[in-house]
Amino acid sequence: MNKIWSVMGMACVAVALQSSPLRAEAEPLFVPNVVDAATGALRVPANYTEWPTLGTWAHANTGEALEKMGPGLHEYHVVYTQPETIAYYKKTGQFPDGAVLVKELLNATTMSMTTGLAVGHATTIKGWFVLVRDTKGRHKESSLWGDGWAWSLFNAEDPKRTVSKNYKTDCLPCHTPAKELARANAPDADKWIYAFGYPVLQKK
Fold first, then answer.
1. Where does the record place the Cytochrome P460 domain (predicted)?
2. Which of 16, 118, 145, 177 is at a distance of 20 to 30 A from 183, taking alpha carbons?
3. Which residue ranges form the domains of the chain, and what is each CATH number?
4. Buried-exposed string 165-183: b where 16+ CB fall within 10 A, e elsewhere
């Protein structure tokens, strides 16, 4: 009889432990290599260059730069994301929660080569722009989270501390034209992204 009660007691303890809040598994950290869980502050992921390239934007000389240096490039923007983001987008047509877009800002120069009189190439890193897709409305207290994304610009000197203060004034103006160029059936938050410039996202 004592053995029976002992077994029953152990079973009750096991059930109690399993149902205890102390045993409940904590929700995984949201993009731990990019987002500070406590503050929502972003940082440039150290391994982003190991991710697939979404696409590259070339910025030509204009205005005073064009007058001084002539036709050519002054900046490249190379955009990276996780491989799972590409797979999800191609399947569903939208960016998943936790998708990270890293836009690497590179200084560029133009020179004459055998392949052409004005050939541009990247030189040094100027900084980064990081976006994180947020479908749950996290960090509402932060001025860098909203409209479905977390937004931050970083100078080359410090990939861990953003220079952005408020995404509505520091970031949205550059992304507003994207909304007019986005496909009509894209989710509203995804319309902030210039997805048409990333052929890898298109279904084959």
1. 45-180
2. 145
3. 31-201 (3.50.70.20)
4. eebeebbbeebeebeeebe
Residue 7 has pLDDT above 80, yes or no: no
Half-sphere exposure of 156 (CA within 13 A, CB side): 9
Per-residue model confidence as pLDDT tens digits over 92-140: 999 999 999 999 999 988 888 888 877 888 899 999 999 999 999 999 9
